[in-house]
Design goal:
This protein is mostly helical. It has one domain. It is about 50% helix and about 5% strand.
Amino acid sequence: MTTVEQELHRRDLPMHSAVLVTMLRSPAERVISEHKYALARPNKNKESLQFLQQQDGGGDSFGQLMKALRHNMTLTDYVNFPFEQGDYGSIANRQVSLLSGSEHSHERGELQLRYALRNLQLFDFVGLQEDFPASMRLLAHVLTERLGHSDAIDAMATQSADIHVNAAAGTAVKPAAAGHSHSAELSDEVRKAVAKKNNLDSALYDWAKEDFYRKLCDQLGECDGPPAAAADADAQPASTADVTADKPTALSGTGKGMSDAVGG
């Protein structure tokens, strides 16, 4: 029984009765966003950073991190901070860590990626933060197929084309601005450091991205592929020799190849 199935069983929900929905984010964009979030919190709401304290490892690394954040810790220093690898809160491969499930948190490398991918494939919908409007259109289609037509679902699809709510700023911005890629502004040094620590997340995201745009084409007839901003979010460093060396090999290639590698 997978982690997702166990959670549904715990809640006494049959698998077929639930519509499972999640969103993934480009690893580089996720790390940048987390850094900005962390910078804004040490003096205002320290408790909101407890997910990072799990990386303390019994020492004073969390205290050191809070001190650095209060002194405007740079993104480079944040990426290179010596977090311990735990279930949650680590800057490295967090999406794979969360999706693989707590019972597989001791696993590392490709095996943990396999568990994450297996769980991800149980979801009825997997969207991409980097293409939020298209994600909402596809989600509306999936919900209509499962739950039937409703005005609320229609509104989700139509409004997403005109507006995107930036939750962090609490303001509404135009789609072009909402799709802006912060990772495109990174130096090669920082980009390589993020990529090296998130090689599993990158493999998972690449699979999900390919699967997303295939479904968008098959189900909605939108076959233009990702917008420029989404493509920029995945841009590789100018020199990738030390990054590709850590890329999972068993799950490389097409989305179907990765799917087949997971097994039952």
